[in-house]
Amino acid sequence: MSDRGSRDERERGPAASRVGFVWLASQSPRRRQLLEQIGVRHELLLPGDDEDAEALEAERSGEAPAAYVERVTRAKLGAARVRLHDRGLRVAPILCAATTVVLGRRLLGTPADAADAAAMLERLSGRTHRVISGVAVAWGERRNAYLASVSTVRFAPLMPEAIARYVASGEPFGKAGAYAIQSVIAGWIERIAGSYSGIMGLPLHETAQLLIAAGLRLQQPPVRPA
Description:
Layout: H1 3-12, H2 14-19, E1 22-24, H3 29-37, E2 42-44, H4 65-87, E3 94-103, E4 106-108, H5 114-124, E5 128-139, E6 143-155, H6 160-168, E7 189-193, H7 196-200, H8 204-213
Parallel strand pairs: 1-2, 1-3
Antiparallel strand pairs: 3-4, 3-5, 5-6, 6-7
Helix pairs in contact: 5-6
């Protein structure tokens, strides 16, 4: 192999091209589903009992929503890189993501309990909010990159009984903004603009661009003959 070829491989990340999978540092089954949708093989790289993963998502006073999502995503990525090294696992690109719902400048994270979930849904009722989803990929010894998608979602007015039923279903828990767009609540969403997969928790276009940059070969959609 030429010197130039060696340099290109180091820059692109030989782990991606040789291993053919990525480490997903997320417990979200939705992110696993979305990666499978675009044919990305992945293994989980989850925090251990000695890690305080929730502390990485703590809000900072005065922090802009987009800055918050980027900071949290990059912090997750840094923790995952340390985790991979400490566990002596096979080297491959690492993928992390973070999603938050924003109403005005107020962040709506995952609800603490049923009352919190109901309160979030009441705030979203009949209004338009933003969903910011950040994704970051690390490869090689020091390479990493970050992209984000910003989408808007408008809810129809939600009756108190509908909110109570949805909360009782258990669906809001573990979801930013107390809802999942792919759930029954989709019947109350008037319109969206942006990335549907980003609203779910992993913007696939941005994710694909980062994985290609890391050297992963993705399945290409069929091309319609001219």
